[in-house]
User: Fold this.
Amino acid sequence: MKQWWKSGAPWIWLNGGAVSISIIMVFGLLALILVRGFGHFWPHSLVSTTYVQPNGEQVEVIGQLRKSETLTAQSLRDAGLKLPEEQRLVTRHLFKLANRDVTGRDFSYMVENFLGEWTYPKDITAFERREWGDFYGQPLRLLERGEVVASGDGVWPALQERLQRSNRIFDEVRKIERVEIGNINFRLERVRLDQRRAELRGELNDALRAQFDERRRALNTEYEELQERLNALIADMRRDAVVMRVAGGKEVTVGLNTIVKAWQPNNMSVIAKVGFYIEAFYDFMFGFPREANTEGGIFPAIFGTVVMVLVMSIIVTPFGVLAAIYLREYAKQGPLLKAIRISVYNLAGVPSIVFGVFGLGFFVYVLGGAIDSAFYPEALPAPTFGTPGLFWASLTLALLTLPVVIVSTEEGLSRIPSTIRMGSLALGATKGETLWKVVVPLATPAMMTGLILAIARAAGEVAPLMLVGVVKLAPTLPIDGNFPFIHLERKIMHLGFHIYDVGFQSPHAEAAEALVYATALILVLLIVLLNLSAISIRNHLREKFRAESD
Amino acid sequence: MSAIPTDGGVLRESLLPSAEKREKLRKTRMFRDALSRYGVGSGGIGVIFALALIFLYLFYETLPLLKPVSVEQAYSYALPVDETASPTLHLTVDRFEEIGGRFAESGAITFFQASTGRILSSVRVPLPEGVTITGFGRSETRKSLFVYGLSDGSVLPLKVDYDLTYPAGVRVITPRLSYPLGEQPIRVGERENDDEAVDYSALTIVEGRGGYVVAAGTREGEIAMALFSTSTSMLSGTVEIRRQDFRLPALGKPVRQLLVNESLRNLFAIDEDGVLHHFDIVNRGNPVLVETVALTRPGVDVRVAEFLVGSRSLIVGGSDGSLTQWMLVREDGGNVQRLALIREFRRHDAAITFIEPEHSRKGFIAGDESGTVGLHYATSSVTLKFLKVVDAPVERLAISAINSMALVEGRGTASLQVLRIDNPHPQTSLSGLWGKVWYEGRDGPAYIWQSSSADDAFESKLSLVPLSIGTLKAALFAMLLSTPLAIAGAIYTAYFMSAPMRKLVKPSIELMEALPTVILGFLAGIWLAPYIENNLPILLIGLVIFPLGILAWGFAWSRMPASLRNSVAGGWEAAMLIPVVIVLGWIAVTLSPWAELAFFDGSMRQWLTSVGITYDQRNALIVGLAMGFAVIPTIFSIAEDAVFNVPKHLTQGSLALGATPWQTVVGVVLLTASPGIFSAVMIGFGRAVGETMIVLMASGNSPIVNFSIFEGMRTLAANIAVELPETAVGSTHFRVLFLSALVLLAFTFVLNTAAEVVRQRLRKRYASL
Assistant:
């Protein structure tokens, strides 16, 4: 023992333990996100049981088991629960009870002591609703305009069929509201701006005014027609309803127009569950958020993140590469350049929030304000570019990631064997030609690596974006069918901010938790993918140069 | 082979371009070369400039905080007087600094152009026949309420409003008088029925919560007051005024000044000797004298006292030129509030004659006998400027609501001086930002960050101390977790680990660095914080069980049969430990509730509360764990490089001399690589200081000043993220937030530069070894 101690082996084991702990933390974290994130879409079985409430009353419970935990009985006694004296540990379960509008609380902890037998009746049906969260119950009757059209076992097949119909109508309604009416509003605003611009320039005369009124009238007529169609569709959508029995025996009528999806998890085969799972995942990726972002999909957030990162790449690549080439190839090497280089590298370590502050102050208020008064005077005092938006978010991130691109490109340039450079110069090429035709093409993979690393950093960055253009709910996407198609001044949604907002600022944080895990999963996958590709490009590149310089 | 044409066997002219063409080509090539040189040069310099701009811009935005106050005597003009030329009772200026007003003893109110003195209009207060004005009192300046004492013993309250109209798009301001308590003069203090003429020596009017108070004091020391409670009828929408009159115990000395605060709970009467009598008037039927306070040193007279905006504290000017601030302070947790001296300002050289508080912040302007005007600010307790304006004693002062224009009238002079004041950020003195400040409504000086509130008269508390302490606290707890793990891990990975495993481990830990911190923050706040709260002993158990368990496994392994030990190559210890650590973790989780039962009466959370330790769910512990996790890869990566690059011949030499591998690590490797490890820790610390999202989500964001591991904090970075989107552009708060960004930038930049320099030196040393 003493000898073992003296050999220093314990210290080596402890150091090794540090590595193991770090590795377990990394992969444990990834596993946690994977399990919770992917678990979000699985149609979990619904439990039916009874629970004896603290006041002695026994109630029926229908719900989904979310988690179980073991606590000391004392901590629950401190919270006012009566437990037998001799009991030391207690298991409690968190159930999702849904039916937020019926009971007022959709999640509840229940102590195992007071729970009855767990059964899984096949006819328990779950609805995903457009408002008020999920709904659990047992279907009793199906109604069409108040008349019973199916009951008992016949309800479920008829329900699915009619649900498809109401969802088809809903999609149409959504299309009219979002796309067509959105277009009209956009064009009406344009008319207003045109008129105001003419007024500011002093060109507004009666003829012009009549022309604007005419344009406005045409749009309003169009709008009224759409509105009429919309009203008819909405009335049609409200035709069917289903009467459900909820836990406790109460009957609740649910309109089919409020239901997004219906499923009977206890009645599904594994294959059906997988199918449901894939569909749910698709809806999540490509759907729009509902209920203050706590339900529905995250498409606008994914779209916003991608567009912002693309715009950022377009800005950061040329400038980063130019700066790197300048530092490496043209600038006079010396102590000053060394200081500049260290400073540029160090900017990568400056807190990102500082960039956000700079972006808000300089880009948004100074540059944006100047752009507004020069090019968009007709919209003032409402700011166009003088307010946080897509372009400023991208520009701020470009500044933030410049050091990454510069460092990576410089590294690539310095790796290129000087023999290649000398060869080109010896053949009579000018410095510029050597640079652009020989050196830079060889260094492209390094630039790509830098760019990918920059994108990975930008995609995960949230703090500066909160200041310069990311919002919890953007009414429109930054790209649409209205001229000029890419709207750089619009505010956007972002995956990272979505996580922060839904996880911490939403009214139903508990209900949204699973969705946040799923969002986090998407973000992690995106970033891990980007980083892995950067690493593989870098390795590939090293191999390649090793081969070429031999 | 088309290079040489063969038709007819005659060589045609050379394929090379002609001389001119070559000349031209050369020129274009040279041009392109120059273009590339200057294009890249300007692009590169532009980018470097853009990065430098971050420094410059943040500096530019915070610079106004340091700018000294400027006060200049802009112009002066003849005192705008009405036909009677009676003395001035009061001066005002509107919030657009266009219209000045002069209240004269004759009952005339003259409005004039503030820039030229040209008289715009003159109105007369409606006085009954044969009655003259004998007294005057006013409310807080921002409320614009006044009360005249009349020779028949009645008083007349009135209010000045400014109406804004925009005929033809141009702003026109019209002053208007209104009478909130009726156009008829009233009598206060149950004097309703007698017609006795009273000569009031002190008058005041207050609009407070739920009503108005008019108070009047006489030379005999009697104080009478009337309370008008207003209530709006729900049905008709009409305002109903209920009136209550009562008298206060007599002072026995002439009343010089009366002050009632906005809460309508306290009345301060100052007598001829400069003694303040503090009455509690909450119980309307029975006003109580709480205390009498001598506001000045013996032999010094109180000349004037005024409330600062919000009427929570009182500025007292003495005949020796002293200025002091007094405030009601709760005594040792009791319910009685007593007036306490909380700070003194720089003394004027002559007796104070007039004090005028600013309308929207805690500053005031004071005039003295020598004609000097002083600008003071309460929160930062600074005297910003003295300026001699007139040769006579200052008689009256007025300051505009945006604090950039003041009117000064000298006693006996027939002219009015206009001061232009540029004083946007009086609060941000060094002591205001970093020292303990006694804020209004507090029981003592403290470091507080509380930047805004719904109330207009709110005193913003901009101490950077709680935020800096919070930042350091969060970073320290993060370093506490990450430094040992990362350095130990780096030593093992670089020196002991087998090459194939290292190839896997290094990228995985570096991948951790790319994980968005918003995800770490989310997990810390939503998953870890509640879990730790319910299973607190896990940490204590973990601290013991992990090192001991690992050592135990190591010892057991050394006792295993050699055949088994030899089947695993050296440098795979960490891989072997992975299942061990998982099992240890599982043991810790299982043991946790039993530890609670055994040592903490069944619930450690409750136990902490019972021994007097505050526990917030989101606290420094959670932040330390989550941010430590985020910092590990930064430290690990750099430290690993430093250790790995220690020249091999050094270590081999040491081993050849008979040192054990561990002795080599301690004696040679660590010694050589220590600067690199040090710079790794510095860079990690820089990252922890600036991290925003984790702290924002896992710390609770309460700006408290302590180092308790179980309480939260608010860091500079998180504070910026929370408050910057909501603040007014250009305000003091806005600039202080920019200042905190600049502090963060400078701090991390210096830290990183130092670390980088250390690393470069180390690299040079390795090369020379």
